[in-house]
Amino acid sequence: MLSHTVVGSPLHGGSVRAPSDVFNSIFEVFLGLGTLVGIVVIAYTMYHALKYRESASDEDPYAEKVERPSMGELPTGGSGGRKVFYSFGISAIIVVSLIAWTYTTLLYVETAPEGDNIDAMEIDVEGYRFGWTFRYPNGHESATLRVPKDRVVKLNVTSRDVFHNFGIPELRVKTDALPGQTTTAWFTAPETGTYEAKCYELCGSGHSVMTATVEVMPGDEYDAWYANTSAANESASMGADQSASVAPIAPAGAASATVTPSQEVPA
To answer: What gap in Å lies between CA 107 and CA 187, rounded to an integer?
Structure first.
């Protein structure tokens, strides 16, 4: 049971940068910089390839400008390695800057935002073969994760049996679900809609169908829904979970077997 309850949505995550925005910004920076470097390198290569291309005449137009070494002779003159130095130096600066910026940016994702104006709601997540259980602060349990829009949501994730991995790809949230341990993750959804949570750790024959619905609701609708939930109606909510038991695909002619959450299936 969590130490605090969530009543309404007094504070929201609308001003908090969502993890999905962070990952999108990293992707855009790397894409833009990679495109720019590619254009410069290709343009530089094409320019010199056309400028110094072989002509139809035998006359060397650069004979008076360039002292060409003969076979077996080491070249002399040139820029003294300045081009190589500039090339490696600029590349090193760019790479180190990108690493430092990306690292500090990802630290923001690793730690949930805190402050006097942020009151994140916490939800416990438990994985089992082959489904997910979401437990709210009032004790209500559900097979569907419902959260309000523009609200910081912290997830405390664990597993009942084997290793799992909880992830919501559209919201860019992902963390391990380990037996006997609790990992944390957080997110905030700027748009209402229905998403899908998946398991990203091979956990048995029903791994591919170990999914859960994630419903992002407007704040007022979520408040109304949450006000009508309690530990007392937990069994009714979990009924959908029990009815969604996994039935592994059996070979043609073989008897089908239904796997309930209480049954163990070898990984």
So the answer is: 14
Is 140:237 a contact under the CB 8 Å cutoff? yes
Residues in the chain: 267
pLDDT band at 144 (very low <50, low <70, confident <90, very high): very high
Average pLDDT over residues 158-178: 94
CA–CA gap between residue 153 and residue 134 (Å, rounded) = 13
Does the pTM surpass 0.90? The reply is: no
Q: Is the dihedral of CA 218, 220, 226, 228 positive or negative?
A: negative
Q: Which amino acid, residue 108?
A: Y
pLDDT at 252 over 50: no
55: left (phi over 0), alpha (psi -120 to 50) or beta: beta
Helix axes 19-51, 82-110, angle to 10 degrees: 170
Nearest CA among 18, 39, 31 for reference residue 172: 18
CA neighbours closer than 13 Å in the CB half-sphere of residue 183: 17
Give the whole-angstrom CA distance, residue 241 versus residue 34.
46
H/E stretch holding 148: strand 145-148
Q: CB of 125 within 8 A of CB of 156?
A: yes
| CA nearest neighbour of 21 among 173, 128, 141, 127 | 173
